[in-house]
Amino acid sequence: MDDENDNEGSTKHEIDSILEQVDPLEIRLDATLLAIYVLCRFLFYDVTTGVKQTPGWELHDAIMLLQTFSSAIVLSALWTLVGVFGTGLFQYDTTNDDNNAWKKPLINAIISTPLWVLIEIALGWPTAGVFWLESTGGNWELGGSFLGDQEWSLLFTLMGAGFLGVGFMMILGRYLRQYIA
To answer: In whole angstroms, what is the distance from residue 135 CA to residue 163 CA?
Structure first.
């Protein structure tokens, strides 16, 4: 019984020590940049879908916009969790090592982006989830196997595009923030 309490206390102490080293301003700035990325991504998707049958806003449009906001929250949460507990992206940096400034955001993107794209696909949120539903009909078991070749190709394409977009945006954003500010 005492061992369990010691383990819980030790884990709580470890989490507290990690959180004490976190720079909340960096988290807020990254979350803002990620939200802008997700909203721009949705805007490009919406503009490229063609002319609507009836002009103006419909319930479907509001639902897709709310799903996009939810997607931005999920990406920000995953980015933050990976950055705080995985890569140490948000720790106060006193070294100012310019040669490694791009590595932590890149590793963060490698870990968090595929999870985010899979959540979008699973929930049918724009943009990745809508592309998946339109391309596969939402069926995860096509052709008797888990996924066919076309579905795997689409899945890796969506993950790759998400990774490239998030990775580039965050590295560029952090670079500009460091040298322009």
So the answer is: 20
